[in-house]
Amino acid sequence: MILADCHNHTSFSSDSIAPMESMIERAVSLGLKTICITDHMDYLFPKQYDMSFVFDVDTYFDKLDECRMRYGNTIEILSGIELGLRNEPDIRPLCVDYYHELAGKYPFDQLIGSTHVLEYIDPYYPEYWHTHSETEGLRAYFESILENIRHYDMFQVYGHLDYLVRYLPGKTKDYPYSDYLDIIDEAFRLLIAEGRGIELNTAGYKYGLAYAHPRPELLVRYKELGGELLTIGSDGHAPEQLAYDFARARELLLSLGYRYYTVYRKCKPEFQPL
Length: 274
Ligand SMILES: [Zn+2]
Ligand SMILES: [Zn+2]
Prior knowledge:
- By secondary structure, this protein is of the alpha/beta class.
- The protein has a single domain (4-273), classed as TIM Barrel, CATH 3.20.20.140.
- The protein is built from nine helices and nine strands.
- The protein has helices spanning 20-29, 57-71, 92-105, 127-131, 134-151, 181-193, 203-206, 216-224, 246-255; strands spanning 4-5, 34-41, 76-84, 110-114, 157-158, 197-201, 230-233, 260-265, 268-273.
- The strands form two sheets. A seven-stranded parallel β-sheet has the order 1-2-3-4-5-6-7. The protein has a two-stranded antiparallel ribbon with strand order 8-9.
- It is globular.
- The chain starts with a strand and ends with a strand.
- The structure holds zinc ion (2 copies).
- Residues 7, 9, 82, 235 line the site of one zinc ion (ZN).
- One zinc ion (ZN) is lined by residues 7, 9, 82, 235.
């Protein structure tokens, strides 16, 4: 059974209105043993969107402590953060410094690194595909992941690999992953060599895709290359999204030969049976 949901958002993220208590209460009611709250920190998010994905980390830890006092006997509450990694040459050094400072200052259990912005554009918006063909857009996305792994060393888990597929302009929402395996393999090799991992992010199911992120073929590839560190997260932004399709995720992982998933405590991986 998957008893830990390691990627979740609360009202500390600008795209969620869920109080931390409501997420935790839902996790308890689902019988989860562990929840890791990983709110968005996208430093220097492009100004044209008029949105801010940063939060006050001191207030976050105050709230987390309050919730641990209240619910700590029934569920393990881990502290986390989802860092928006940027690869633009003028932005990257500023993000690296800022995220280093955060990682050094606060006692996070898990730091997720994710790509949310490419070339100053959030590919959630169609404008990304006005300037990129599907092939170019996907290649630039996977290349940025590889570069981010090379330049950011403060995160343990790369978030939702291949989530860009959700925003492809075509209806199929599929992509020829093997065209990008040269880059993806390199990214996996680097993460594995450094003792870092990836996550299985079930939000793909929530968006109606045939697979979670990353797609099964990439989970197979990761394992073939020696990858063992795999957390599982719903990327829930509301209580009803918690542990989304975890039974399906478990079946998939077992069918691919996985026997364990990973939970990070104090930034150290621990294996739990599936
Ligand atoms: Zn994300
Ligand atoms: Zn997220």
